[in-house]
Design brief:
14 helices, mainly alpha, about 325 residues, 2 domains
Length: about 325
């Protein structure tokens, strides 16, 4: 086989690798990116054959450049440690949210609209909130957000310290995220049900405090940590529903392959949601119980909501543009 015939025969593999590398560098969601390792190995074999046959320098240089580029990409994608984790949260996570913006707004509506509805009708129909919260839930709302209640007293009496409160909240918040995501395996229905359950619960809690407690205490408590916590719940539902839809609509792939691919794409969403709710646990354990003027609490809470929104909208855009 002449060098020209050799080049013509295997050139489609080189073009495929170049396309895969372009997509990987741009973080573009594509099924073909999953073929990168196998295609890279094939091109490395082509380079070995070309060198053995003493092919023209132009040919070996092109193959060598492709092999180096592929190696660097695979090494970067497989690297571990804090650098990878930070990049995942600061770059890949917001990019994944923006890529699924329709699903984000759908889950946002499914979370907030029922909550607002329950909260609005509870003052005139408190039996709705009572049925959702139960005796224990109503007692907790009254002890934490009653007329004479203070957040610092509640944390001290129930947890003993802000650190123990933080440990409780981080376990509770992250477990909600993972339960919401895990429900997606049932065609997305499980994630939807968990999302709606949390929506009804939060709506009932807010409505019941308006009915028999002190709303100002509730809002000064929740305004700051609510931004990352509620957003994390919504995004974990996104991740679960994306996995569930891959089971229902696998396209040309087998259901198992579609499920694996969807799980990989949903992982930045799930990890990002867990980080957001962990940040919420820090705020809920240490900041929310502080006895500060309401103006300071509301100003801080407003900054938290703006920071979360700006992070999801703008973080990671420079990396996309550079690619």
């Amino acid at each position: 086989m002449t060098p020209s015939q050799f080049e013509k025969q295997i050139e489609p593999r080189w073009q495929k690798l170049e396309k895969l590398l372009d997509e990987a560098e741009k973080r573009a969601p594509s099924n073909a990116v999953e073929d990168l390792p196998a295609t890279f190995r094939q091109v490395c074999h082509d380079l070995s054959v070309a060198q053995h046959r003493m092919a023209p320098q132009r040919l070996t240089q092109r193959l060598n450049a492709l092999a180096i580029r592929g190696y660097r990409m695979l090494e970067r994608r497989s690297a571990g440690g804090w650098e990878t984790f930070v990049r995942l949260f600061l770059v890949e996570f917001p990019q994944a949210v923006r890529a699924e913006w329709k699903l984000f707004w759908l889950c946002t509506a499914l979370f907030y609209l029922p909550a607002f509805l329950i909260a609005a009708i509870t003052p005139s129909h408190p039996e709705w909130a009572m049925a959702l919260l139960g005796p224990d839930g109503m007692g907790q709302m009254e002890s934490q957000y009653g007329e004479a209640s203070k957040p610092s007293d509640y944390v001290r009496e129930n947890f003993g310290s802000g650190f123990r409160a933080f440990c409780f909240y981080i376990l509770n918040n992250v477990s909600i995220d993972f339960r919401t995501f895990a429900g997606g395996i049932l065609g997305g229905v499980g994630s939807l049900l968990v999302l709606l359950f949390n929506s009804f619960h939060f709506g009932a809690a807010f409505g019941y405090v308006h009915y028999s407690g002190n709303p100002l205490t509730l809002y000064t408590w929740a305004v700051a940590h609510g931004a990352p916590e509620f957003t994390g719940i919504v995004i974990s539902a996104m991740a679960g529903m994306r996995v569930g839809w891959s089971v229902l609509r696998p396209g040309r792939l087998e259901r198992r392959a579609a499920l694996v691919l969807a799980g990989r794409r949903a992982m930045p969403l799930l990890i990002g949601a867990a980080v957001l709710t962990s940040i919420a646990a820090v705020l809920e354990g240490f900041w929310s119980p502080m006895d500060l003027p309401p103006t300071i609490k509301f100003a801080t809470g407003g900054l938290c909501w703006v920071a979360v929104a700006a992070f999801l909208m703008f973080s990671g855009r420079r990396q996309t543009d550079a690619a």
